Amino acid sequence: MPRKNSVVFVCLVVVLAGCASVAPGIQFSKSRADVVADDDHPRTEIISINSALVRKEKEQRDRQVADDLSSLLSKPQPYVVEAGDVLQIVVWDHPEISASMLPAPAFGVQGGAGVAGSPMQPQSGFEVDQSGMLDFPYAGKLKVSGLTSSEIHSMLTTRLAHYLRQPKLSVRLLAYRSKRVYVDGEVKLPGVQAINDLPMTLTEAINRSGGMNLTADQSRITLSRAGKTYTINLPQLVQRGMNPSDIMLKNGDVLRVLARDENKIFVSGEVSGPRALPMRNGRLTLNEALGEAGGINPVTGDARQVYVIRRSSSESLVYQLDANSPGALAVAESFELNPKDVVYVAATPLTNWNRTISALIPGALPGAVIAGTPGR
């Protein structure tokens, strides 16, 4: 009778061993012949995480930062007048031609330049029309779009000299209404910010919006311009010796400060505590992610199969780290993760086999072991 029970146990092991291929959890295969490619499950090659890959990715990150932001760096330029701006023009000793062509705003109403009106000295000015033309008494229609206030001053002085003896006048911007940027996301005062005579740099736009919230991710600031989106990492810029104030904003730019919750790393599989981890100033290494999750489970986890699944714009990339290899921890500490990466630790073959048996026939494995034990 014990011999019969042993045969039953051996047969059970042989049959269930063939079911190991359907074990629970994510399955990876290094053999490309074992992977069936179709539209829903494209063929994916596993990339080994080693020192050469870490070095290559670091060079690619450095090159990408330099290339992406080069078109945003420029020197401050004088403000030029465009359609919609309002000019205040005063011709001294000739108040009859300095009268406004626009009604003065009510008391307490803010003008485009942020100066409140006063009942003693009401605001008034001349608006630049949609064609960029300025209509001023005696001077007629002048093309002023694209000119600075000093250039407009010189033009008006020359025109008025035909009618007035040594005219003296002053020209200044009363309302800046032609150029603006939009600041959104994790700032205290999101909304529209008008570009005025002060250079609208990246830091200036954020400061005018009240600064960043505590939940803001300073490493993930996006700037959308002319259909292209740039990602700005402030701590990285400072670390590389680049001044964020050298990034000049232009009319129509959309600046968005992302929240830290939008850039998480997901750790799952055979770790002590699967969880979603926020990045720290845009940086989190594979070693740090595994440490935050409590490390690889020493009983069920297979240290040879630590995977990083990364979704790019065109394909999914799968990286593998053999944590049992010499120097693996040093490589993992240098391998930087990207937002939305998934770190997955696979189970050992024995763990998969045990879980498959338990799922198919609950209690079958303990019963078979008891039946096959000598003396039973």
Shape: rod-shaped
Identify the quaternary structure here: single chain
Which range does the strand content fall in? Answer: 15-25%
Which structural class should the secondary elements be placed in? alpha+beta
The radius of gyration computed from the alpha-carbon positions, rounded to a whole number of angstroms, is: 34 Å
Query: Gap between N and C termini, in Å?
Result: 9 Å
Mean pLDDT: 81
Widest beta sheet: strand line-up: 1-15-14-16-12-13
Structure description:
Helix 1 (2-17) runs antiparallel to helix 9 (364-372). The protein is rod-shaped, with a radius of gyration of 34 Å. The N and C termini lie close together (9 Å). The chain is α+β, with helices and mostly antiparallel strands and 376 residues long. The protein contains nine helices and 16 strands. The strands form four sheets. It has a six-stranded mixed sheet. It has helices at 2-17, 51-69, 149-160, 202-208, 234-239, 286-292, 328-334, 349-360, 364-372, and strands at residues 46-48, 86-91, 126-127, 133-136, 140-143, 169-175, 180-185, 191-194, 216-225, 228-232, 254-259, 264-269, 275-278, 301-311, 316-321, 342-347.
SSE map:
Layout: H1 2-17, E1 46-48, H2 51-69, E2 86-91, E3 126-127, E4 133-136, E5 140-143, H3 149-160, E6 169-175, E7 180-185, E8 191-194, H4 202-208, E9 216-225, E10 228-232, H5 234-239, E11 254-259, E12 264-269, E13 275-278, H6 286-292, E14 301-311, E15 316-321, H7 328-334, E16 342-347, H8 349-360, H9 364-372
Parallel strand pairs: 1-15, 7-11, 12-16
Antiparallel strand pairs: 2-3, 2-6, 4-5, 7-8, 9-10, 9-11, 12-13, 14-15, 14-16
Helix pairs in contact: 1-9
